[in-house]
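Annotated sample (chain length 166).
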Amino acid sequence: MIYNVIDKKTLQVKKVFNFKYLFFASVILNAFQYMAPKVKDLQYAYVPIYVDTISLIDTTDITLDDSSIIAELVRLDCVLPNVALAQMKIETGHFTSSICKENKNIAGIRNSASAYVVGKNRGHCVYNSYRDCLRDYVRVQNKYLKNIDGKYAEAEGYVSLIKKIE
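Output written by the structure step:
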């Protein structure tokens, strides 16, 4: 905005531009320019807190009930999942044994050279989750079933036949 101002020395009227509004506008723009990256960073500051909180809860593991275990075994292409479930119940006393709970080992696996095994406790493999134990169980099952074809069973494709029957 332009104002009329009287010059005290010459007593003449001069037109002067008022820089007050321009100054405040530049301060605000500079503040936004400075704060914009900070605000952007604030959006992401909450993500690690949220992720850390979520990672404390293992939402990927299964519950120890028949339907969850059978569903996971079927998803993993386990041969005869009902027989596997029965075996697991025998090994763990219906999922109440301390080995089952401490080691997350629901199959009674003692020795396994698997990436799923994270250690040993009281002579049994330790897993991060029940799901990892089931993955290892199916891995071991597939390993032994490969040895059946041509060695144990005379019929060609014996394992394929078993999988079709189930």
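Annotation: The chain is about 55% helix and 10% strand.
Annotation: The CA atoms of residues 76 and 90 lie 21 Å apart.
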